[in-house]
Amino acid sequence: MATKPINRVTLFKIPNKGDIPAILDKYTTLAVDAKKDNKPYILSAKASQVIDDPAGRNQGYTVAAQTCFASLDDMKFYDEECEAHKAIKVFLKPKAEGVMTVYFEADSTSNL
């Protein structure tokens, strides 16, 4: 049985809006920069500023990042060993007041 791709969404609370462009820039080359066995392994990576919601549904999160992996093992590698991900975390940690990550299996009926 083939594994389903894993979609991962990470939300960041970045209080200084001036930091957001540099954060978004870090995600523009992530899918190419991240290597496993000297080859890119992330299927896609993108990030965007969250739209301000006057009703407060965004709960203070200001940046959303979405990455897609071929397998859960690839996502675990990203979390535990990937040098490109480690570099993003070092860059983001002093800028973020909160982070939340969720992930799920993609299927043919999903639009995500």
TrEMBL record:
SMART domains: Dabb
Secretion signal span: none
Domain Stress-response A/B barrel: residue ranges: 6-104
Domain of life of the organism encoding this protein: Eukaryota
Entries under PROSITE patterns matching the protein: S_R_A_B_BARREL
The name this protein goes by in its record: Stress-response A/B barrel domain-containing protein
